[in-house]
Automatic annotation (TrEMBL):
One of its GO terms (biological process) is DNA recombination. This is Uncharacterized protein. SUPFAM superfamilies: DNA breaking-rejoining enzymes, lambda integrase-like, N-terminal domain. Keywords: DNA recombination, DNA-binding. It comes from Suillus luteus UH-Slu-Lm8-n1. Signal peptide: none annotated. GO terms for molecular function: DNA binding. The keyword Transferase does not apply.
Length: 300
């Protein structure tokens, strides 16, 4: 094909070596999925390899093998979760078996999975959402406390509830290999006014482009729980203890609070039917009860 260059001028750019191209491509491929997702995919692949070993089947993911795997796994875990297992298997095996995605989408596999869901699925058990009364209980209980960590916990709890944040956006994962500073909100992005506060969340789960969003906290001076007043109190205490630390959320130890740290606090007030996701679910429920259109919480 003989393509003639157009009249548009191109900026001067240097040519890369093959080694540089391969290196940069490797970095891009490594950033394609989150480390937590990659770890889950590895676990799913191990489950599939274990199935092949137990049943003396070849590792090649044919329609037959995948459909047998679906039936076997659906008798051990909730069939609705098998979808995510198949996604992990496809992701990890596609470079070795290019046809795996086609086999996954075949009628034999999809209908086998559909049948297992109808036959073996159990009712969904969701964690209970937090309520405004639950928040008020924690705020009133810790109101007289002079503990810095108590103030941090109640601020995280109320902020997550009011802004519909996920626990992973407020705290670090427990596993160090999944902890990344590119997801950490920074103190210098926080702006406080008399009626609101805002800060930058550099990365969130819904972002496919790796960009974050602006978190807005509105004051509720007439309410029983005022998220802005709590945030102001926390920031004053934080700046007094750690004036030179860049992170917004810091525990008394000077480290970013982890999920385990938050859950230990949560268990002091609520039973296991309340989880970290209960903040986001409760905040969305409260918005819907106040008359906000359901499409708005769903989009966040």
């Amino acid at each position: 094909m003989n393509l003639r260059p157009t009249q548009s001028r191109q900026p001067v750019r240097e040519a890369w070596t093959l080694e540089r191209l391969q290196f940069e491509r490797s970095l891009a491929l490594g950033c394609a999925i989150e480390s937590t997702t990659a770890a889950a995919y590895d676990s799913h692949l191990n489950s599939y390899l274990n199935f092949c070993r137990l049943h003396h089947r070849a590792v090649e993911p044919t329609e037959d093998t995948l459909s047998f795997y679906v039936v076997w796994l659906s008798h051990h875990i909730e069939p609705r979760s098998v979808d995510s297992y198949l996604s992990g298997i496809v992701n990890r095996l596609e470079t070795h078996f290019p046809h795996v995605r086609q086999a996954r989408q075949s009628l034999l596999v999809t209908r086998t999975l559909k049948g297992c869901k109808r036959r073996l699925s159990k009712p969904v058990r969701r964690k209970q959402p937090l309520t405004l009364e639950d928040l008020a209980l924690v705020v009133d209980t810790l109101a007289s406390s002079n503990s810095y960590d108590d103030l941090l916990f109640v601020t995280l709890l109320v902020t997550g509830f009011k802004t519909l944040q996920r626990l992973a956006e407020l705290c670090w994962p427990n596993a160090k290999r999944h902890q990344s500073y590119r997801k950490v909100p920074l103190r210098h992005t926080l702006t406080l006014t008399s009626t609101s506060a805002s800060y930058t969340l550099p990365h969130h789960k819904s972002s496919t482009l790796g960009v974050g969003c602006e978190i807005l906290v509105l004051g509720e001076p007439g309410g029983r729980v005022d998220p802005l007043r709590l945030l102001e109190s926390y920031v004053a205490a934080r700046d007094g203890l750690f004036p030179h630390h860049p992170q917004l959320w810091l525990a008394a130890s000077g480290t970013i609070p982890t999920r385990a740290w938050f859950m230990r606090y949560l268990r002091r007030f609520f039973p296991p039917t309340i989880s970290g996701h209960s903040m986001r679910a409760g905040g969305a429920t409260a918005l819907a009860a106040s008359g906000v259109a359901p499409a708005l919480p769903e989009a966040l």
